[in-house]
Structures are given as C-alpha cells and as structure tokens.
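>> received
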Amino acid sequence: MVESAFIHAAISKTFAEQLRTYDDCFAEFLDAARNGQKHLQAILLREAFERFRDGAVGIQSNTPTVVLDVSCGPGGYSTAWTSQVAQFLPHGIEFHCTDFKGGRCRDGIPYPTATAEAIKAASARGNLRLAGEPSGVEADLFLGTDAIIIAGRNAHIVHWSHSGYHVLDALGDQKSDAAAIAHGLNTAVDKMWAALDGSGLMFSVHQTGDVGDGIPSDLASVSKRYLGFLDDIPARITGRITENGGHVASLHFAAPLQFPLMGDGKWDALKDPARWESLDGDQTRALRLLSFIAHDFSDSQKSGPERLAEIDRLGAFVDEYKGIVRRNGGHIYVKCAFQMGGKSEEVGRKLADIAVELEANMPRYLVEMRREMAKASGQG
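>> returned
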C-alpha cells in the first residue's frame, strides 16, 4: 500500500512538490528493505506483548482488552501493530483511537474515522478479533482539555508512537518557547494518564538522543542542531509519569536507515534546488529522506531542504549526512526508546523485569531485523 501510494505521488507531482509533502517522504523512510527501525520496533512489540500476556500486565484474561491508539494517523500502522499482537489478546480488542482536529487522509476523511474503519476491515479479514464497534475521537493532544477517549471508557493499554515531536507543530508561534513545549508534552502525557486504567500500561516509542549505551543517534542529534528537533521526548515522558506517581521502564534500540553511497558530485547536487528535477534515483531517495528528516508543518509551500537553503544551511546539512553515511558504510542510525509505564507498583516491577529481558535478547532481535530487511528486499 505504501509503495503504490508512493508511485502515484511520483507520477502526479513534481519532485519539489513531493519534497513538500510529508506522506511522500515518509513513504521513502518506511521502505521495509532499507529501514531496520520498523522491523525492530515490531519485534519488540511482539516480544513485549507475549510477556504482557504471561505476566497479566494490561491484557485482560476474561474480557476484551481496551486499547487506545494515540495519534493514530490514517490507520495503516494501527492495523499493523494491533494485528501483530492480536494473538496475545485472548478475548479480543475493544479499540479506540484519537488524532488531532483537522488531520485528514488524502480523500478528506478524518484520521480517527479512517483508522476505525481500517480496524473493522482488518477484523473482517480475520487479522484481529474485534469486540464492539471501534471509536475515534478528534482531539488536541497537546493543548486544552479535550478528552482523547469516548466518555465512560478507560484503556487497559495506551499506545503512543512517534508523535511527541509534533508538539512543536501544535504550538505554532510558541514552538521555541521552552515553557510552552514542557506544558504541551505534560498535557499530552496527562491526557493519556487520565485515560489509562489503574492496572493498565502505557507504552511509547520515540526517537532519542540518548547515547548511554554507546550507540550513536545520527538522526536525532543532527536534526536537533539544525532544526530544533526534540530528541528528549522519552526523558520528558519518564519525568511526567514519575511526577504523576507512576513507574516507567525503558530500553533503547538503534537501527539502520540505508542511504545510497554516492560520489561528491551527486551529493553536491542535493544542495541546489535548481538541480532537483534532474536528479537520478539514488539522489532522489537521499533527498526525500533528508526532507523527511527536516520536515515540519509550519509552511506547506516549502520543504525542509528549501527552508534550509533560504538560511544558507542546506549545504552543511547535506555534508553532515554525507559524512555519516560514508562513515557507517551506507546508512545512518535511528535511535529510539521503547518505554512501558504503569500506575501501580506491581505493574512497574513487572515492566522493569520485561525491559531487562528484552535488553538481554537484543542481539537476537537484531539478527531477526537484518533477516526481515533482506526478505523485504527479495534477498532473504
């Protein structure tokens, strides 16, 4: 589905227009053959949910498990991860989702509506067991007092993946205000905390600049210097949950995002917007990835690379990634934190034990990740 959407975008838009469209550049990032993050994240979800079931954490043994998917988007990833973990939910899923007001699919359908329909379709295909009609709520996550789940319901499992960075987009003119950023992220965590059952669990996956394990963060660290990217979302989540009396267990993982290995001349062409319409396949992949990395939602008429060119920083940005790609032999490292949180001490202890187990098995998961990348490329 991602591939066909990407092909359509390439046919119907100029290359500069593709660079300005988040979904088009995101499709390049998601390429399963050249992005290890998605495989490794899926492996960790599978392994964690097996342990959630065995330890009676969040997953219900006698009734459907109530799931709240926060920042659900158009539904593709929601159906993927829920279908993957459905085998560990003995009485099925009561599914709820939320995303920001105004978030629309290409056909104009609100994200939560599209996700609810996608979940129903996945259930009809037998990919998951759905308990009841799924619901979707449009709500401002980072601002105001909007509830993020329908009235009268609390979730046994709250899922939040890769959207905390968008607090900057939600804040508009206050995106550089440290106090506003802190308030926005605290508001988001508090809303999820309010929607979470007392014995439930919240898990989150976000990019991190943490290098405590000695593994670099090539995406977050560079983007922070050039773009103000927030590379400390996991630390902020831990801090707020702790302030709310909860408990968090975290582990970090690093996965390769493959870039083409190119000569200096090809890299140099990426620095000049006047040359973009004549780039070859390797160059267009590299620039789409850089545009995804540099994307924000402040101006739909300009891509991240265009804005960097305006302030004379695009050349340095391209050169920095060229150096990293060559140093790593054809990729950059995307570093993420997989976090699990709960309200009770008992749940907290179980999650801490699960984190230790997952960390110990990481070498095996990395082998599986590489095998899945090779399979996606047709070589496995």
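>> The radius of gyration is 20 Å.
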